[in-house]
Design goal:
By secondary structure, the chain is an all-alpha fold. It contains four helices and no strands.
Length: about 80
């Protein structure tokens, strides 16, 4: 059976962002801070509706490297 990963998402931008945040926050809650940042960062970068500069992700990366759970949560929840 062929993969469906090449098909465009049927989710709205808001739905996609909500799911991305939920997945990242679940990882954060499980103590997987770096994976949480990586998860949301990858989802945002791959989103065709995202026009954010990639430099914004430095905040999340630095927060995870410092072990700052509060800052990582702010980074994840800050996407609108």
């Amino acid at each position: 059976m062929p993969s469906l990963s090449h098909l465009p998402s049927m989710l709205t931008r808001e739905e996609h962002l909500k799911r991305s945040k939920e997945a990242a926050l679940a990882l954060l809650s499980a103590g997987r801070m770096r994976e949480a940042v990586s998860s949301i960062m990858t989802d945002i970068i791959q989103s065709p509706s995202s026009a954010l500069p990639h430099e914004i992700h430095a905040f999340g990366i630095c927060a995870a490297a410092a072990g700052d759970t509060r800052a990582v949560r702010e980074y994840i929840e800050g996407f609108i």
